[in-house]
Amino acid sequence: MAKEGYDDVRRYKLDKIENNKKALVLHAHRPSLGSDSKSPSTPRNWTLFGKSLKIGGDSSAISYEPNSQGLKHWATLKWKDVKVGDIVKLERNDEIPADMVLLHSSGPNGIAYIETMALDGETNLKSKQGPPSLVKRCKTVEDIGSIRATIVVEDPNIDLYNFDGRVSVNGETTPLTTNEIVLRGSTLRNTSEAIGMVINSGEDCKIRMNANKNPRIKTPAMQVITNKIVIMLVFFVVLLALFCSIAYEIWSQNVEDDSWYLEHAKVPFSQIIIGFIILYNTLIPLSLYVSLEIIKVGQLLLMADVEMYDPDSNTPMMCNTTTILENLGQVDYIFSDKTGTLTDNIMRFRKLSVAGYAWLHDFDLQKEAAEKAEKEGNPPDKQSKGKGVDKRFSKKRPHRPQLDARKNSEISHASNPMSPSGSIRRSGSIWKSTARPSKTQHEFRTEELLRYMQTKPHSIFSKKARFFLLSLALCHTCLPEVQENGDVEFQAASPDELALVKAAQELGFLVIDRPSMSITLSYASTSDSAENVVESYQVLDVIEFTSKRKRMSIIVRFPNGKICIFCKGADSAILPRLKLASLAMEKASEVGRRSSVRKSLEAEEALRRMSEHSPRSSMGRASMSLNRTSLSRNRKSLGHGRPSMASTRLQPIRDELDTWLKERENSDVERTADDASAYYTPRASTGRFSFASERRGSNQDIVFDNLIDEALVLDDAAVFERCFQHMNDFASEGLRTLLFGYRFLDEEEYTGWKKIYLDATTSLVDRQNLIEAAGEMIEQNFDLSGATAIEDKLQKGVPETIDKLRRANIKIWMLTGDKRETAINIAHSARLAKNFSEVIILDHATGEVEQRMATATLDISKGRIAHSVVVVDGQTLAEIDANETLKLLFFELAVLADSVICCRASPSQKASLVKKIRTKVNKSITLAIGDGANDIAMIQEAHVGVGISGKEGLQAARISDFSIAQFRFLQRLLFVHGRWNYVRTAKYILSTFWKELVFYLLQALYQKWTGYTGTSLFESTSLTVFNTLFTSLAVILPGIFEQDLNASTLLAVPELYTHGQRNESFNIKKYLGWMFMASSESMIIWFTIILEMHNKTWVTGFGYFISVGGWFMWNVMLSFAWSPHTGKTFPLYPVADGFLTRFGRNLLWWLVVFLSLAGVICLELGVASVRKAFWPTDTDLFQELQKDPVIRRRFEETVAAEARGETETVEMGQEKTSLEREGEIQDLLDERRRTADEHERHPRRDIPSI
Question: Which residues contact 36 (CB under 8 A, 6 or more apart)?
């Protein structure tokens, strides 16, 4: 109760922090309450300074009337005081305090850029623009105070993606949609100032409507079994008391009635049964629930693990509860957010394809490597990696990435496209795809592209590449800002655009200014001039990106007067709009067919491997099918005997374990086409150039002649095929691809289209559709410019962590508010989806959701699909929830699938999915992890909630059960501490039940010799302290310090985590086994609880000594402290001087003690030995295996390699034999002998002192 009270206080403090945030409110418009009817059907009326507000019926209406009363200035109010109808002023980077309709923005064309990451997880900024009828009348504070308007909005609801309302000004009515509404939980970005009017506040805001208003109280899963056992014990105590009472009645009739010395001693049945219930009530260990808290406090302190500390953010692992520590060891489902949880909210330009050639861009990685080396006190010299890149690609102006002789001296060997011998160096890059780490990178680096363009500036390829880089620098809406130190930073509505513009900057095309309708570029001249060329391009029109169009276009006028339209977007949007669309579609189909064949072969290989092992769903004992017979035979040699003999006997086991681990660590079945390099190397079809060929000399011109095939650049069919193959490969690596096209326009065509577009942008009716229709007219007949691939950087260790979680039989769902395409890309890069996965997309727009789910369920059930990923969007999920048949089909499919991705999901939908899996999948433990306010609902709904202290804020970390800084720490949190806490708690509970039964069963056995009269075997004072003081440490210490397996073993072998999922440490069967042993042992068997502990340390030894020695000290104390002068005599319990003068001096008593102790120890050890010999568990096996130093080193090296980010497989070492050791010793002796002989031949001459 105290702990729940503390949680309530903590939540109150967090609410207080949120409610006391500051907002600027127009003071003249603060409401003063007039009258308020409590009936919800009667409109509520307020008299406001300058406005009249009416709310009632099915919608809310806010009416503004001119009123000049009141001082019009911006007053600072707390969020909790903001009311509906208030006018709120927002400044750059301010959080939105309530749902508002936008009235004014200082941005271009009245646009405000809003970040909604905390609402829907999208990193792209949303452009919001107030209703035109209000914007033109709300330019100043005076205008706002004098406007006359009525705003009608929908009732508060949870829908984040739709909004219905209208605004009427002077009889002119316009609709209100999501484009004019900004929601609480958003942040104003890239806009210096915005003004809005509150339409929903407090609990009526959409983000609060999506929140879990009444979070459930979380309880440990083991408590269910514990409660069942307690109920069983209640019945057992009642039955035992009833049995003893009946036995007393029988004994009374047979003995007591015939014994003259027992006359008038009979006890009524009602009293004797109550007496027995009191005597045996301690068999029900109600103190267990209290002492469990002590155990969990100790476990909590030990979870302060430095391995889960993030030095970059200075964030340790935080535990906000002690209630559900053991649940961490039993997780079956993980529900993860995407943005900020799996990803790092950072986009990096990674690859490009132009004129049929692909290039890898890794300037950022080389710069980071150079900075890391310098930070570690090892600054790179002229031949070290990254120094030249760091200097050459500085963001300071003027910028010239030309490779002249002076800068060549600074370029490192790693970044130099020419090896010392003059041959072209292939991309032995430090970058590896997270989705396909084993894939060979065929691409050249963009450094080689720049060098080629400098060496051959007038070649056809160079012109095409230069024009493609120009399109990167022009086709965007980013705004450059020159910092005080001269660096150029960009404000972008999308991190993708920011990555593209930065890449253009690094490749020589720097945007240095962007006035209202122009873009100023600085780039290197193609001539020998050392000066950069600065040109200004006039921006004529921008057709912005929308999820429906999937593309963005910009029309610019070149300095020479030519007009060109650049367009970038998804391949599905650009391909049909190419000039040679039919040829492009044909080549894209060919690439798609090749990809399908490769994926089908990989899927067949995966199915073959699955058939060789036990099914993943069963996770039976065969999943860890090491040769147990051979291990049992060689168990004696583990850690014993001569090293050489032990090594010989253990080597087959080591080899078998190494093979078993490699099969699971290298589960990739990727197949690379034989001709894969043909789409990257020049003239592969003719064999004229090959990177495997010998060097043709050191002449750089000869090398560059063979680098690019100019004839291929002019072949449209070859360029299309290679470009689409590159894009297919980029996508398979988890990169986000974009296709670029361009077309030059004549003046007449543009003038005619401009009139249509202007009418569309100024229309008050159906404006968006008219703009899209106008865009369709001009976005046609493009020439292909090239393709780009952007990496949405994952947090460190995310793919490896997901692989290990999957090996641990944990299913991972990704729930995000982002778009479907983005979610699928991240799923591939994070290895949620494999390259051969069957991606089952459920889309309500197709009308085939039910058929698709039924077919997929059947295929998965029959084992026809190697790896399945279900993708569903929020709107489809809403329709599924509304139909009971579809709901049953969906959850049947979702439970069978390997992974599920839910995109465009609202916070309430995330929580609903978690709740349904938690309640519908029997005995499943769910874990939800996220970092934003939109993840709070699902974190509270899951059995275990984990918050990431990420870039979306600390809302999730504060409200969660556990908080970590990085997703990768989930490995250690679950596999190590989760497993240990589960085993510790299980052992503590079983030990407590065991000692209670052992101790109090003696009372029942003793009744046979007391005529079942309820006489206690033990003196009352000793009985009380025995159970509290002298048996508590024996069970508490294992409950805090037990470690059944090493941390390195648990991390290297995630399959061991299934121990907790299957409830192997604590179940009814295990309990009955322990109770059988308890009923077979004597009074002092509880002393041997120490034998149950695998990890024996001085702490547990000290506890054992205190428990045993303390009991005897207690007897000595009673002998002295008991006063016989109290007038009371206790003939049954000779306490006074009992231990010192009576039974303590009786050798027979000591003999009984030691014989009993030896007997029960032998029984415990014998049963344990037989069980481990004939029915060993996975834990028993790995306890023996980790004793071998070679195997233990293999586990430790695997964990260390993963921490360093290495993907190579760790090899199992071998222990040196005695012959090898003797050889080493002999070599040392020979070396010393040679050194001595050398000294004898050349004695050292002493140098005389001066």
Answer: 44, 45
**C-alpha to C-alpha distance for 949 and 934, rounded to whole angstroms:** 14
Q: What whole-number distance in Å separates Cα of residue 504 and Cα of residue 798? A: 29
CA–CA distance from 890 to each of 337, 819, 824, 854, 900 (Å)? 20, 21, 19, 9, 11
**663: closest CA among 689, 625, 701, 696?**
625
Q: Which H or E run contains 739? A: strand 736-745
Structural domain harbouring 140: 1-23+71-210
Q: How many CA atoms lie within 13 A of 753 on its CB side?
A: 22
| 497 assigned ligand-binding residue | yes
What is the pLDDT at residue 545? 85
- Name the token pair of 769: 């559709």
Secondary structure class of 1117 (helix, strand, coil): helix
Instruction: Name every residue whose Cβ is closer than 8 Å to that of residue 1047 and which is 6 or more positions away in sequence.
Output: 972, 976, 1199
The answer to whether the annotation marks 548 as part of a ligand binding site is: no
385 is in an annotated binding site: no
Single-letter amino acid code for the residue at 1006: Y
DSSP-based three-state secondary structure for 305 = coil
Give the whole-angstrom CA distance, residue 290 versus residue 1040.
15
In degrees, rounded to 5, the angle at the alpha carbon of residue 1106 between the alpha carbons of residues 1101 and 1110 is 155
- In a domain, residue 198? The reply is yes
Structural contact between residues 938 and 907, judged by C-beta atoms closer than 8 angstroms: yes
Average pLDDT, the chain: 77
Closest to 295 (Cα-Cα) out of 1035, 1034, 1103, 1036: 1036
Angle 907-920/874-882 helices, nearest 10 degrees?
50
Number of domains in the chain: 2
* Residue-by-residue DSSP string for 69-84: -S---EEEEEGGG--T
985 close to 324: Cβ distance less than 8 angstroms: no
Instruction: Assess whether the previous peptide bond of 1131 is cis (omega < 30° from 0).
Output: no
Q: Does 419 score more than 90 pLDDT?
A: no
pTM for the full predicted model: 0.79
Handedness of CA 92, 94, 95, 98 (dihedral sign): negative
Report the CATH number at residue 526.
3.40.1110.10
> Does 177 belong to an annotated binding site?
no
78 is in an annotated binding site: no
Residue at 889 is within a domain: no
Q: For residue 338, say whether it is annotated as part of any ligand binding site.
A: yes
The CATH number assigned to the domain holding 16 equals 2.70.150.10
Place of tokens 């034989």: 674
Are the C-beta atoms of 626 and 1184 separated by less than 8 Å? no
How sure is the predictor about 1105, in pLDDT bands with cuts at 50, 70 and 90?
A: low
pLDDT, tens digit (0-9, with 9 covering 90-100), for 510-556: 888 887 788 888 888 776 666 788 889 999 998 888 878 889 999 99
What percent of the chain is predicted at pLDDT more than 90?
A: 20
What is the Cα gyration radius of the chain? 38
User: Phi and psi dihedrals of 1063, rounded to 5?
Assistant: 55, 45
- Choose among 886, 932, 962, 951: nearest CA to 210: 932
Residue 1167 lies in a domain: no
AA letter at 784: L
CB-based contacts of 685, cutoff 8 Å, min separation 6 = 678
Asked if 155 is an active-site residue, the reply is no
Which residue, chain included where needed, has tokens 């279900």?
870
Q: Which residues pair with 532 in a beta bridge?
A: 524
- pLDDT tens-digit series, residues 913-947: 999 999 888 889 999 999 887 888 899 899 999 99
Distance CA 773, CA 757 (A): 9
**What angle do the packed helices 820-829 and 716-732 form, to 10 degrees?**
70
What DSSP designation does 943 have?
S
- How much of the chain is in helix, strand and coil states, percent to nearest 5? 50, 15, 35
For residue 1013, the number of C-alpha atoms closer than 13 Å in the C-beta half-sphere is 13
Residue among 495, 501, 542 at smallest CA distance from 518: 542
Domain end, chosen from 162, 180, 210, is at: 210
Active-site residue, selected from the candidate residues 86, 332, 337, 344:
337
